[in-house]
């Protein structure tokens, strides 16, 4: 068994309003950073997985994203896997 | 002025307990994914910034992270900037 680390990004879909991101974009003006626009806020998830090879690790992480980590109605996800 | 996009990761520091990540790690067992361990959950933030050059964009995003996006007592951050 080999140990892999996965780095996952879960973001609100483009067509979905991101109220948290919108609020933070507004706050940038008060910080004197009005040149920062269109902030979107999602989740960054790291995890470790033991698997026989990278392909199996990839499939399991994909399963975890689909079934637990991302809400596919409102969110999309992407991830990278690297051997630890 | 050039437009840049930044991709920012804000994560709980290693020495800080991450109760959300711990809870999700526990749920993996119920999903039949007990080989997934040590989940940590932070934020992934994307934003757009107009600046004269990449160096200035980098400095402004760093300022935004320090002053608003990350809580430096409990979180660390990293980011990449790319021209759009």
Polypeptide structure, described:
Chain A has a three-stranded antiparallel β-sheet with strand order 2-1-3. Chain A is α+β, with helices and mostly antiparallel strands. Chain A is elongated. The first copy, chain A, is built from two helices and three strands, in the order E-H-E-H-E. The A-B interface holds A 9-11, 21, 24-25, 27-28, 31, 33, 35-51, 60-61, 63-64, 67-69 and B 9-11, 21, 24-25, 27-28, 31, 33, 35-51, 60-61, 63-64, 67-69.
Short synopsis of the structure:
By secondary structure, chain A is α+β, with helices and mostly antiparallel strands.
Architecture blueprint of SSEs:
Two copies of one chain form a homodimer.
Chain A: E1 2-12, H1 19-30, E2 36-51, H2 54-69, E3 75-83
Antiparallel strand pairs in A: 1-2, 1-3
Largest chain-chain contact? A-B, 34 and 34 residues
The number of strands of chain A is 3
Query: How far do the termini of chain A sit from each other?
Result: 12 Å
Counting H and I runs of at least 4 residues, what is the number of helices of chain A?
Answer: 2
- Sketch the major β-sheet of chain A: 3 strands, antiparallel
Quaternary structure: homodimer
Radius of gyration of chain A: 16 Å
General form of chain A: elongated
Percentage of residues in helical conformation of chain A? 25-40%
The helix/strand order of chain A is: EHEHE
What's the average pLDDT of chain A? 96
Classification by helices and strands of chain A:
alpha+beta
Strand order across the largest sheet of chain A:
2-1-3
The proportion of residues in beta strands of chain A is 35-45%
Low-pLDDT regions of chain A:
none
């Amino acid at each position: 068994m080999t140990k892999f680390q996965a780095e996952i990004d879960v973001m609100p879909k483009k067509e979905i309003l991101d109220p948290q991101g919108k609020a933070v974009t507004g706050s940038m003006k008060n910080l004197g950073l009005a040149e920062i626009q269109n902030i979107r806020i999602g989740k960054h998830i790291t995890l470790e997985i033991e698997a026989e090879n990278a392909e199996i690790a990839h499939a399991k992480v994909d399963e975890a994203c689909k079934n637990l980590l991302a809400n596919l109605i409102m969110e999309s996800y992407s991830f990278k896997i690297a051997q630890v």
